[in-house]
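Need tokens for this chain, all 343 residues.
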Amino acid sequence: MRRMPQHFSRRQVLKGLLGGAALWATGRAQRPLFPQYPYRSAAFGRFLEDSYALIPAPKPFRSWLEAAYQAHYHEPLEEALDHRRTRIETTRNPRERVVLEEATAVWLHRTVKALIPRFSLERGFEFSNAVRFGERQCLLQSVLIAGLLQEAGLEAGVVMVWRNPEGKESNLGHAVVLLRGSDGQDRLVDASDPTPFARHPGLYLWDRSAHDYRFVEAHFSAEGVTHGYTRLADGKPLPLDLAQPLDVAFLRSQFDYYRGERAPGGFIGPSTPEGLEASARFLERAMARQPRNPLAVYGLGYVYRKQGRLEPARKQFRMAYQLYLAQGYVPPGPQEAQRWAGA
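Here are the structure tokens for all 343 residues:
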């Protein structure tokens, strides 16, 4: 993989800052809109419906969360969100507005960790399991925080991580919140960390100019905000106004990927025929929901291979390799799968 530039020029940084100020001045309605699924919306409700259709819980998720919030903070969640939204929208000083936006992210980071205290890779991706066991996982916590931030009137969404701050690379192994401030710069909110704001240098997001998902490198200021990205596919800068979080179809696909990955007896760990069949069903639905999710395409090939369905497995691996390649980065697992498929 070629070495990418680590920083933008001072001129590019200044252009980004001025662009951010212009975005604030023209008002939220004229800024590029992120994928929308605010907490109280029907779009957010579809995440809940997908989960409850598989694993019922004793209470609806929103009712449970709002009761837990009331007990913890002694005020209704709805009032707290509306109050924050009003304060942000009526603040005209740009710096004060940014401070309020960051404080809202800190509040929700703390809130989600307090109300859903346990982290679980095995079950924490189901909203129903948050109610049943108080468990969360990176995708669930990120979708929830992003939905609450949107409800408070902020531009936020979810992106995947392929390289963490320690330099460890993964095959889209983590999810975080991307919050775009009214200053035109991005903050990453990660409820898997003790502190709210993270500096993950390798991200996976939507590139509006390419009309596709892209692996990118993020460039951080000394204060920890992101002022630009570099595409791995061609080494060129990706301006912030062309970078957006992942859409609802991708997120629903990714929830199904985790269901397939963690199915009892599925393709992670010791497998059973019944478990592999369950993995296949979830991953096939993940592909149907978003065919350009490379992790779902690759995972389904892995399932088919374990089932002994070698020709369908080869087809999946080749498709996955081409997706990763087009989007800018091929992790070691898909590289090895491509070699096997070619052989």
